[in-house]
Structure formats: structure tokens, C-alpha cells
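ingest -> fold -> write
write: protein_1
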Amino acid sequence: MEICPHLPLDCLITVFSLLQDEDLISVSTVCKEWYHAAETQWLWKRLCLKRWSFCNVSQFRTDTGTPSWKRYYLRRSHLEMKMKSGRSCADYTCKSLRGHKGKVVGFGYLVGNDDCSDVWKSTPVVCSASTDGTVKAWDIQKGVNLWTSPAQSPMQDIIVDPVRSVVVTSDCTGTIKAWEGLTGQELASFESGLSNAKLMLFNDKSSSFVMVGSIQGLVVLTCPALSEVSRHVVFDSFRVDLLLSSPDKKWIFTASKENLDLCPKVFYTETVCYPNKDEESLCQSLSINGCCAAVFLPSHHARIAVIHTDSLFSNKTVSVFDLTIKESKYKKEPQAQQVASFQIELRDRTNLTLEAKGSNTLLVTDGNFLKVYTLTGDLVASFEDHIQPISALCVDSFRVVTASHDLSLRVLTWRNDKQHGLNLESQYQLLGGSHTMSRGFTNVACDYSSIVASVESVDGKDVLKAYTFDF
């Protein structure tokens, strides 16, 4: 394409708006006039917002002090290029976080980088809990332990609140504790008497709550004070072992995998977090039973997909529901409308995980397979990147990471497929060490520029592996 070098600036900018990033950089070397046109902030802002839904350019400024969209675009695209290629040493560093003397039961980011915040300033900090009775905080870039809590009974679960810098744990005696994330100081303790308690963090407006699922039902506590707010019976004699909150913060999903005859239930959060003595909590049972896995669709306010079965056969059903509140003059009534249903065939019933992306994409692990479905039941893709079952799955806006018992992580990145829309492309593996020392990965978590996974060790002293991508 020939362009006259003497076109007015406005005309050059209009023409350059048709170019991609590499072409825009190339034309800036032609002459002084083209350079000034190609440096126009609007052009680079347009490229940024086309590629990413949110951009924080506050740390990238021109010589005049205004935000530099070009610097932001080049820096962030360079980071994503490294995360996509995954070359050892050149693109990332790996640290082994050792110190626990038992099994790692869970971990989470206390400080992390995401695509909607300043990915250039934060040093990621991860907190982990172990059956050795301790909680630890780690600087994953340096690979050092920041603090360790006093030992207590074996830990069973952990949740992390990055907004308030709080860590909450439960142990085998039913003791639930809140810890100050930066120092490890104990903030509060609650004797629930609930063994095998499942924890979930719930942030609503300016308040924070801890949801506790157990054989006694659902217990709601304030966070970090751990004061009891309400209690709710869910399943008589069966434990609540699946807790989820909807993107609009209006619903809590509860389910038990212990009995195929049980129907999942959803609670209206306003009535469990802010109970009225004169009114009962609003709860609705879904018209299915035998819940195996569930996930809320991130781009819908209150749409949940559930994998369920009423038998032990390999075929299972995915049902999708929209949750709403019907309001009349005198009462509110929860409703669950089924909007989709389709069957899927699974080879492995024991290693089943369900995650979602956007408004129409479901990811299901099936043994050593990762499968991608649409809400209409179309199998878009199937990946067999592991030689042993997938143990955990992490999904974000840029990539998907699968962890496996074969002691490897597989990184896949999102792309737009002309025929099926959103799809995945398998990229590379991250290895976790020696099979003589380890039994495989057990869990995985990601922020925008790092991946952390737990490794089950042969000697019973589990290790965390942290992969940090350089930018």
C-alpha cells in the first residue's frame, strides 16, 4: 500500500488506524511525519482496548507525564508472548517452595497480578495450609517463606481474601481461624465443631463473609471477626462439599456428592448474610440429582452449569439453569429455570472438574483428557496432553493450565475460532521434578503472570512449585 508522505496528520492517523501493531511500528520509521502520526496515543489505545477488555496504563507515561498506551501495549504483549511460548529460563523462572512437613491441603494468592489491575508492580504472595498444622506465606518470585503460623491440628481447608489481606483456615477439630495475611498474626477463632468443613469466601458490597459447609449444613460467619451470622440446614445427615457463589453475588450454590438422590440447592444471599428474624432464608432446589460438579458462567449474572447423574454409568448430563427472584407485593420467591441440557460421555468418574469461560464455554476434565463444550452440547475440542489423570484445572482470561499426576502442567491459550468461536490451543508443558521424589501435581492456581502448583512428595512433605513469567 502506497501512502504519500505529505498527507496531513489527520489523514495519516486515519490510514494508520487500519494497521496492526507490527505494521504501525514499521511505518513509524519511514519519516518524521509518519513517526509522529504512528505515535498518536489514540491508535495505541485502540489496539489495547481491542485486545484487552481492561487496561491500567497509570504506570506507563510519556515524557510529558501523560499515559503511554504504546508502552503499555508493547510491555503487556511481550509478557503474553513469553507466557505463550514457555521457554525454560528465557521466559520464566521456577522456584521450589519447601518447608511444610505434611500434605498441602490448599493454597491461594494473597497478593497477585490480574489483567484488571497493575500487573507491573505487585510481587505475588501465596499462602498455603498443610496437615502439619501450619499456614505459610511465600514470596514466589524469591522463593522464600515470609511467615509461618504456630502449629495446631492438621489443616483441612484454606481460603484467602486478597482485598482485606486475610487468610481463613479450618482444621480437623472444626476450629476455624482468621490470620492477618501480611504478618501471620491470628485475628479470630471460631469453634464450629464441624469436621471436614468446606470453606468459601464471599464478598458482598462492603462486607466479607466465610461460608462453611459441613454435615450440619451451611454456617455463615463474618470475616475476619468470625462471628456467626446464620445457620441453615441443607442436607440431613450428608455433608455439603460443594460451595459456589454467583458472579452477581446474589446466590450461593450448595451440593453434596455423597448421595445420588440429593438435589443441589441455591440460597439467596441477602437472606443468609443479612437474616431477618421474622423471615426464613430463601432457598430453591434444582430439579436434578446426583451432582458431580458445577460452575457459574463468568459472563452471566446468575447462570450455573451442573454435571449430574442418577446412575453409575459413564454417561452424565450437563444441565444449565438461570437463577432469578420473582418479587410480588408481599414476598420474594427464588426460581431456577433450566435453559440447556445435554449428555456427555466420560471415561473417568473419579477425576472430574468443571470450569467455564465467558458465556458459552465449558471445560471438563475426564481422566487425562480436557474437553471443551458449548452450552448447546457441541464438543469443540479434546486434548490428551497428559499420560495420567488431570488432578486440577485453572482458567483465566488468557490461558488454561491443567495439572496432572504425571508431574506435569500443560498450558493452553485462548483463541477465536471462526467456526466455533472461543477455543483453546495447546502450547507447552511445565515439569514438576523427579518421579522418584514425587507422586504428581495435586492442585494448581494462577494469576496473570505466574503459576503455582502443589506437588505430592513421596516422603509426605509436599512442595509448592512457582513459575513466574518475566516482563
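write: protein_2
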Amino acid sequence: MHDILYHRHHLENYDHFEFPGVVPRSFIGAIFISTLASPVVSTMSLLHFPKIYSLLSVRLVLGCIILSTLRFFRTQIRNKFGHQVEAFFVILTAVQFHLLFYCTRPLPNILALGLVNLGYGNWLKGNFYAALNCLIFATIIFRCDMLLLLCPLGLEFLLTKSISFWKALKYCIGAALFCLGLTMLVDTIMWRRLLWPEFEVLWFNSVLNRSSEWGTHPFYWYFTSALPRLLLAAYPLFLLGVFLDRRVFSYILPVLSFIVLYSKLPHKELRFIISSVPMFNLSAAVGATRIYNNRQKRYWNLIFIVLPGLLMISLGCTIITFMASYENYPSGYAIRDLHKIGCLSNKSNEQWVHIDTFSAMNGISRFCQNDFPWRYSKEEDIPIEEFSQRNFTFLLNEHTNISGFKCLFSSSGFSRLRLQVGFPPISLVKEPKVFIHGNIRNNNVMNRSWPGCS
């Protein structure tokens, strides 16, 4: 998004040629978001606003798009299940952390989530072919793993005779060819090679099983760790909704099948199954509504007492997680402080900043980078002893001591929670995470006064 907004048609300046990542991703989502954000970004550039405001702009645009698709799903919930279920759906979504947190994160998973929300909404509306087309678009362009949701959903439509096989085949093949042509046209141009990004992702993750190099979890991890954290109060309530309303089971079954199928892949991440959350929240909202409507009846009144407690626990967990996440981007604060206090008197010389892998993953993007005399390198796999032979002015690094460099200051990040007496009963413990080092051979750096790394 940064390169589209600032380099436009000058592809040779784009970051992905030097740092392509493990697998290529489609530019279609980035182009769409950047196009919508470009009027605001252009205005801020004319007014010489820092580029960080452009990052806020593109993330706000993305967030508004995802929330609008979630609103479409919510509207269909109201039409299908009524106002009470809609209200509980909103409440449960609002007291969860991860879904709303991820809504503004420019990831392929989130771009796919928007299309999945539209698919869910069309499913409730009875537009079954449109629902399939939304998932086909998400699968071919943004996330190939949406195939694991598309197949169970399509099978259910066929078994319930919601769609005709031959008509579905005609619609789906047409949509698939259009999406395939679109992504190959755009991404072949942007990557400068013949490319279907999601096919390479599928081959890398599923055929070669290379994703397991980034860690593995047991088969049951999504059900015992990821879903409880994603859903919070909605986790027990969604199970109740399945048992209390027969309509819900047909909506939950394809989503559960998606997670079971995905569990066979050893490498697991919470964001991989985030597209299942809206449908689980629907089931939970149905369960909460049934509890609320029967609150005057015997036994039900006991369950009703538990319901507000669950919601408050969910809200408390969300607040704590929000506070932790706010302190979880030390590299962003580090580069901001370096720009403020690290500008040297001789501005005709370039100031090279090396950003190591840890720092690049913890709050730094190209939107955080300044123009001349600042220059940046994200060169990977440099042995720590080799930095003394390089001509970097500053290092942003996770190591406290590096030969040939002096630690100038550090940036702290979230480490753990600590229980304490008083209010609030929980506090966040932070510790230095990112260290900013200066080249000891650079007199301009060494003659400056720095906060230090105590």
C-alpha cells in the first residue's frame, strides 16, 4: 500500500522485489484500498503531514470496509432471526478483542474475511450462488485456504438442494475464470513474472508442507486455544445455540468442518480461522437470546445470572488484551524516537539504519520511514559479528551488545501481566525489547548525548 501510494507506476522502487517474503501475495487488495485512501493521502502529502498518518488512513479505510461487510451480515441476521439475536450478535462481537483488532490489519486473511462476511450474508439471504461466488473470489485471489470453507458449504447446498449442480458449475466456473484472469493479469505485472500467487501459497503450505518451519501445534489446538481466545464468552454460548435452535446447526456445520480440515495442517495461527468468528457469534447470539427470553422460567433463571458474568469476563479480557497490544510494538516507538533525537548536524550525509527481522515484525513499516538523509536496510541473515564491518549509522536490533556499536537507547514492550493489591488488580510489565545502537566510528553519533540503555 505504501509503494502504490508513494511510488505509483515506478515499480523498480517497490519493496517486494528486494524483500518478497516467503510466498508472493496478490496486489489486488492493496490496490483497491490504496485507491480509496489516495485522496486523503494526497492531501496530507501536500500539507506535509508525516507518513504515519497515511498508515492510519489506509487502515481506517480497510477497517470501514470490513465493518461494512460485517454490517451486511448483521442485517441478514436481523431479517432471519430477529432483532434480539441481532442485538446479542453486536454485543458479543463488541466484547471480543481479536475480530475488531484484526479488522484494520492489511493481511490477506482480513481481505478474505470481508468476502466471507458477504458470503455469510448472502447465505442467510438465500442467495446461494452469490455466497459461493464470494468464497471463490476470496479463495483464488486472497487466501487459498478458503477452499476448505467453500467445499463443505457447496456440499451442504447440494445436499439440501439449495442449488442445482449444473447451474452451480456454470456460475462457479465463470467466477473462477474471471478471478483467475484478474489475479494473473494484475500480479504478473506487479511481480514482473507469470504468477498466480495463491497457487504458489497452496503449493508451499499444503504440498511441500513448508509452513511447518514456522512452528507446529497439535490437531486440537484451534479448539482448545485459538477459539476460546477468539470467542471468549461466545465459546460456550455457541454450543448452546447449536442445541437450542435447529436452524443454527446447518450454518455451523460447514464452519466447523472448515476448522477440522484446517487442523490437519501442522502450522497453525489464530488469524487463519478468524473468518469463522462471525458465524460462531451468530450461534452464540441465538443461545443468549434463548436464555434471555426464558429468564423467568425455572432453571433458566440460574443460567441467565451467568450470562452477564460471561459478558463482563469477555469485556475484561478484551480490555487487558487491548492494553497489552498497545504496548506490543516497541520497534515503532524506537524508530519514532530515533527520528526525533537522532538527526545529525551534517544532513548532507546519508544515515543508514539497519532494521533486523525482530524489529521489522514489531511495529515498523515503510510508512514509518523518513526521506533523505535517512536510508534503511532490512537485509536479513547478517551474522552479529559482521555488523562491525558494515557501514550502518544506526542499528535497530533485539541484541543488547553488538561489536563496533554502542547502545544509545532502548524501547520497551509488553512482557507479562502482574497481579497486585489495589486497583487495578492487574498491571502490565514492560521490559526492553528493541535496542538502538550507534556506530562507534561515527563521531557525529558518538559526540551526541543519548538516553542510554540502562
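write: annotation protein_2
Strands lie at 351-355, 374-377, 394-397, 405-419, 426-439.
The radius of gyration is 25 Å.
pipeline exit 0
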